[in-house]
Amino acid sequence: MNVLWVLAHPEARSLSGALRDDSIQTLRNLGHDVRESDLYAMKWNPVVDATDYGAEAADERLQVAAASARAYAGGTLSPEIVAEQEKLAWADAVVVQFPLWWFGVPAILKGWIDRVFVKGFAYGLSGDDGRTLHYGEGRLAGKRAMAVVTGGASEAALGPRSINGSLDDLLFSLQHGTFFYTGMSVLPPYAVYGADRVSPEQFNEARDGLRERLRTLETTQPLPYRSRNGGDYDETMVLKEAHVPGETGFSIHLR
Fold first, then answer.
1. Which protein family is named in the record (predicted)?
2. Burial letters for 224-244: b for 16+ Cβ neighbours within 10 Å, e otherwise?
3. Domain positions in the chain
């Protein structure tokens, strides 16, 4: 299995860095091929601008979706973007590892998504019948994706009745709005709570738990998100009332 590991943490000597190092060795010991995108080590530029799309785009009023689609089709995307797209195309599974900052992903990771997942490559595709291919379909369909998250809060403080909101809700935009939107099958996330206060024993427990998740990377059941074109949604992309009637919220999009 080809695995792309994307890390968004500024300190290689951190808990996240130690888990990344052990995980990559674990994957290789299991016979998988691994490529990395260590965004801070790469000094990844998270800012979208016209220079991403070639000289022609720099002379025009920038409309990001249209400009990125033209650049992808015309082969004028910046080389660093193309390199990351080639890694994604190569991968059978994508592991995205990050600390939870301000209830979301670090800016550098959001910027990696913004610059790499361009129209024509990751979205904006249509099937032979004219249907838009997203939410379970698309170029990245058939790939598996998993988030590995470290958070300073306790597990209870990121639970379903927490003032912070549940971890599942905080990750919805990444897991459903990026991974699943582009066609990938989304595995349950792996979370390490209280990351700033982890004892050696707790680190060993977190490491071993992640090792087990990696051993089952090919077989773990994905989250059962409803596909856009599977019949559950109407023409306005609203869930039909026959499904979980009267309910709202992120959970209604799970079967």
1. Belongs to the NAD(P)H dehydrogenase (quinone) family.
2. ebbbbeeebbeeeeebeeeee
3. 2-222, 224-255
Closest by Cα among 222, 134, 140 to 177 = 134
- CA distance linking residue 142 with residue 135, whole number of Å: 12
**C-alpha span between 108 and 113 (Å, rounded):** 9
CATH number of 2-222: 3.40.50.360
How far from 232 is each of 1, 17, 160, CA to CA, in Å? 32, 41, 25
Which pair of tokens denotes residue 67? 């400009």
pLDDT digits 0-9 by tens, 56-91: 766 778 899 999 999 999 999 999 999 999 999 999
CA distances from 90 to 2, 176, 197, 254 (A): 7, 22, 37, 28
Q: What are the two backbone dihedrals, phi and then psi, of residue 254, each rounded to the nearest 5 degrees? A: -105, 135
Bridge-based pairing state of the strands 93-99 and 33-38: unpaired
| Predicted structure pTM score | 0.93
Cα–Cα distance measured from residue 53 to residue 201, given in angstroms and rounded to the nearest whole number: 48
pLDDT at 58: 67
* Predicted pLDDT at 170: 95
